Amino acid sequence: MTVDDSRSGTAHDSARARSDARALGHAVIARGGVRHLVDAATPVAAFVVGYQLFGTGPAVAATLTAAALLAGWRLRRGDSPKVVTAAMAAVTAYSALVLFTGEGRAFFLPEIVGCAVLTVAFGATLIRGRPLSLIVCHRFQIEPSGVDQPLIRKHRRLTAAWAVMWALHVLILLPLYAADQIAALALGTTLLGKPSVLIALAASWLWIRKR
């Protein structure tokens, strides 16, 4: 390969990387990335402010009020009632856990447990030789029904990436939980929650489309 060829290949790879990045950004925005960030941050912000200023009881009241107002706004915008109800139920369950334990950090415990479960779920399917991402793609007919070695190899890498992502969630959040760092937990769960999952989904979609 000549120097010119090498430079041409590097330029091509760089252009392709920029194109993929733009496609990823467009995919995240198209799927409501900003709105999901607001949805995730609003109840958490209400909880942290209420907890820091007044304690667990007022924090729970502020959280449920913020979540209810957000749910009403989302329903008015035409969001799915099932999705809105599920989100409200999750906030209610997190708040109930705070009241039950008397600890503010308990609000973030379900998130950590959920990430740990997903880490094990994705990792276990790699051991079994049936990557979870392939199972999901077959379930929703994103991939063809047949299975061959190139397809399995591709989904092994994709499933491994998801397993690492969930494991990183645990590795970041668990020490903050142990140290009772409420504000850091709030920031971590907000950034590592819906926004990061949405980015991962968009990146996975672009990866799957590559043949």
Overview of the molecule:
By secondary structure, this protein is mostly helical. Helix content is 84%, strand content 0%. The protein is built from nine helices and no strands. The radius of gyration is 21 Å and the shape is globular. The two termini are 26 Å apart. The relative contact order is 0.11. The model has no long low-confidence stretch (mean pLDDT 83).
Fraction of residues in helix: over 70%
Mean pLDDT: 83
Cα(first) to Cα(last) distance is 26 Å
Report the principal-axis shape. globular
Q: Count every helix, treating DSSP H or I runs of 4 or more residues as helices.
A: 9
Task: Specify Rg, calculated over alpha carbons.
Answer: 21 Å
Number-wise, the strands total: 0
Strand percentage lies at under 5%
Low-confidence segments, ≥5 residues, pLDDT <50?
none
Tag the structure with descriptive keywords.
9 helices, globular, mainly alpha, 211 residues
Q: How would you summarize this macromolecular structure in one to three sentences?
A:
Helix content is 84%, strand content 0%. The chain is built from nine helices and no strands.
Write the layout of secondary structure elements.
Elements: H1 3-30, H2 33-54, H3 56-76, H4 81-101, H5 109-128, H6 132-139, H7 149-178, H8 182-192, H9 194-209
Helix pairs in contact: 1-9, 2-3, 2-8, 2-9, 3-4, 5-7, 7-8, 7-9
